[in-house]
Amino acid sequence: MSEKKLRMVHYLNQFFGQIGGEEKADVAFSVKEGPVGPGVLLQKLLGEDGTIMATIICGDNYFAGNLDRASEEALKLVEPFKPDILFAGPAFAAGRYGLNCGEFCKTVGGKLGIPAITGMYQENPGVEIYRKDCYIAQTGDSAAKMAEAVNRMVSIARKVISTETHSKVLAGDQIGKPSEDEYFPRGVLRNEHTEKTAACRGLDMLLAKIKGQPFVSEVVMAKYDSIPPPPPVKDLKSCEVALVSDCGLCPKGNPHGLSGRGNKVWCTYETKDLFPEKGSLPEYEVAHTGYYPKEVLENPYRILPVDIMRELENEGIIGKFHPTYFCTSGNVTPNLVCHDMGEGIAAEIKKRQIGAVILTST
Amino acid sequence: MVGINRALRGQTITNLLGDSNLPPEKEKELRRKYVLRALEILSTDVQKPQMFSLDGVE
Fold first, then answer.
1. What pLDDT, in 10s, does the model give residues A112-136?
2. Which member of A232, A305, A318 has the closest CB to residue B17?
3. Looking at beta carbons, which residues of chain B come within 8 Å of A298?
4. Pseudo-torsion of CA A175, A180, A186, A187, nearest 10°?
5. What domains, with CATH codes, occur in chain A?
6. What's the ipTM?
């Protein structure tokens, strides 16, 4: 690394920061001089090349409860130490912690213009959301793999900091490919000289595949779960049916803060309030930048056929039209987040003993 | 389509269950057709992901 000793700040949650367990998840920020917990190993591996000036500790719930407030507070606490690089976690598979580490790295690292490194297990929701904003080292799924995780984080740190200029700007060039340095792909495109053209490489892969020989795909396709089809509804006349949608239609003011792009939130609205049967309809907005909402705003029944569902219930064609509309917005939302939202909505549907769902999607 | 077990193809992106060229009453009839078709599909046995249309199977 460089001759100058690099200044580092480390973010930990209440557990790894040795304040307490789940019962202390609401603690606000505290600052400790030097390394704490996993930071001790981090410092040991860094050796003479860097100093962990301070450890910033915060409860998982406190941070997650208000990301904006938390990252602003964190920035104020970190700034005086004038760090060259940030560390967070590692969070392994812990969802809240992972999201908080990611947000810390993204916001504090971003505002200070310095690299930030954390570590997560591949299924941590923080990976998909933050992998482009910081370096997320690949880790095992629990703290049993702490040594390996911290090692990776340090190894990435050594490559990321420029040795020539002591610059706070990401060197970039010295870090290897994600597979080489064991971090999650950051969506960075870097030109590379190859001996063979893409056409030749493609054919080589195809021939290898046909011959049953190993090959490495250059672009990895997303995997989708295969879910066995549920059995059909036996009797619609006794079935309670609910409407779910990812169209982003919500009351004007968007009270639940759905994001028009990359949304991670779902919520519910009572149909009697959002689509009153008597009088005029309230004002709506569409929290979804993936389609032109004019037609839907003219007549929301075009995407949420509440009027028809009510008629069918009155006619006895369905047993009941569930009085709650399950609302979300699906526009460039990462698969893992979609998966989690789907599971969340499904759990609520099951709890309410709803028999079938019509999901409308643009 | 990416493993959706029961999928019904709608009209357009901006107007899933309707057609703004139709007069409101006719558009409502079309919307009713779609919902009834969806309920029919919910009552249909499927063995693997299947794309349906208003009139049949794709």
1. 999 999 999 998 999 989 999 999 9
2. A305
3. 20
4. 100
5. 6-181 (3.40.50), 236-360 (no CATH)
6. 0.97
